Amino acid sequence: MLFGLKDRLPTAEEALPGRPEPMFRVPERHTVLGNPLQGPYPEGLEVADFGLGCFWGAERKFWQTDGVWTTLVGYQGGTTPHPTYEESCTGRTGHAEVVRVVFDPAVVSYEELLRVFWESHDPTQGYRQGNDIGTAYRSALFTHSPEQDATARASRETYQAVLERAGHGRITTEIGAAAEHVFYPAEDYHQQYLDKNPGGYCGIGGTGVSCPIGVARADG
């Protein structure tokens, strides 16, 4: 039943059916930051979603960033409701592995988080990230406001120009509204995986090309 589909997103007929409720419980608190993983979050904090390959190493990049209040990993951008990790790995759910970042905009801006995102992976690789191959490892941004959307799109264009000067290809990062792409938290053992397994696999690696900030604001 779980035949693989790695080079394209599934059609509605190919997508796995999923289930109305999750098959597992999500831990209450972040093992590093100590804060709750799921909302409601304190007033004044903002949420942003980033897909940049295997979410184990990607999550650590963000929880190590000043101003980040909590992080959790999950599946987003697909069709199958409440997928499991095994299902998402087949490519038949359509989801990307994503890190949800809850942050204090008075300490770290969304634009600065985008710099972490762009510099921590190669956004030109399509349905893969390094040796991790499949639609689950695609580059993606799911935004939580029109301002985030505009800033994300502007930063993509800015970074594209920098990458091209460095000899890299076109960015394949998809950008969509989080409201239209449900985020499903991943299983317990995936949350803060590299804190629980310090020697665990981390496939995160950027292009080595710095991303400028301060030139990609939505207001110009």
UniProtKB/TrEMBL annotation:
Domain of life of the source:
Bacteria
Q: Where is the Peptide methionine sulphoxide reductase MsrA domain?
A: 49-202
Q: What is the recorded name of this protein? A: Peptide methionine sulfoxide reductase MsrA
Under Gene Ontology molecular function, one entry of this record is: peptide-methionine (S)-S-oxide reductase activity
Name its GO BP terms in alphabetical order.
Answer: cellular response to oxidative stress
Q: Which chain positions lie within coiled-coil regions?
A: none
| Family note | Belongs to the MsrA Met sulfoxide reductase family.
* Gene source species: Streptomyces lonarensis
- Active-site residues, Swiss-Prot/TrEMBL: 54
Q: Identify the keywords attached in UniProt to this record, alphabetized.
A: Oxidoreductase
Its UniProt entry gives the catalysed reaction(s) as: L-methionyl-[protein] + [thioredoxin]-disulfide + H2O = L-methionyl-(S)-S-oxide-[protein] + [thioredoxin]-dithiol; [thioredoxin]-disulfide + L-methionine + H2O = L-methionine (S)-S-oxide + [thioredoxin]-dithiol
Write the Enzyme Commission number(s) for this entry.
Answer: 1.8.4.11
GO cellular component, alphabetical, reads:
cytoplasm
What is the documented function of this protein? Has an important function as a repair enzyme for proteins that have been inactivated by oxidation. Catalyzes the reversible oxidation-reduction of methionine sulfoxide in proteins to methionine.
**InterPro entries in UniProt:** Met_Sox_Rdtase_MsrA_dom, Met_Sox_Rdtase_MsrA_sf, MsrA_MetSO_reductase
